[in-house]
Design goal:
144 residues, mainly beta, 2 domains, 5-stranded antiparallel beta sheet, 9 strands
Length: 144
């Protein structure tokens, strides 16, 4: 897994913590943008693997931020059953659907882009047919 450096709130800055980075309105104007939110993918989970004892104050939230090393963390996603195999690396193809459905967030996870390669760690459910007619399977995956 590829390690990255980013900034997190000092309250979150502990080895093993999983967090999902989100960009605030003022982030792009900040001098720490490239080190902070510009170095990770918003909407996808990351696990803190090491914490440095260097801190900066976030101008947007006025909180103390620490430098941390992170790796992509697993997330759950619904994918077409025909490609849902443990260990497989697939290109993400979003399932676009206009219907209101309780599974929409799992079919179109925030932070993933069409064409992203995702590795399937495990299959979490058996195949089922969604309201649109797709056969889907819930898997746990990550960005390799």
């Amino acid at each position: 897994m590829a390690r990255k450096v980013t900034l997190v709130s000092s309250k979150l800055a502990q080895k093993g913590i999983v967090f999902v980075p989100e960009e605030l309105n003022n982030c792009k104007k900040c001098k720490y943008f490239r080190l902070c939110i510009g170095n990770v993918r918003t909407g996808l989970p990351y696990k803190i693997v090491a914490v440095r004892n260097i801190a900066h104050r976030c101008p947007a939230t006025n909180t103390i931020m620490k430098i941390v090393f992170v790796e992509p963390a697993p997330f759950k996603i619904l994918i077409l059953s025909k490609v849902a195999y443990e260990g497989a690396v697939i290109k993400y193809r979003p399932l676009f659907c206009e219907q209101k459905c309780k599974f929409k967030k799992l079919c179109q996870p925030k932070g993933l882009k069409e064409g992203d390669k995702i590795k399937i760690l495990s299959v979490k459910s058996k195949s089922f047919r969604c309201p649109k007619g797709y056969y889907l399977t819930l898997v746990e995956a990550f960005l390799p």
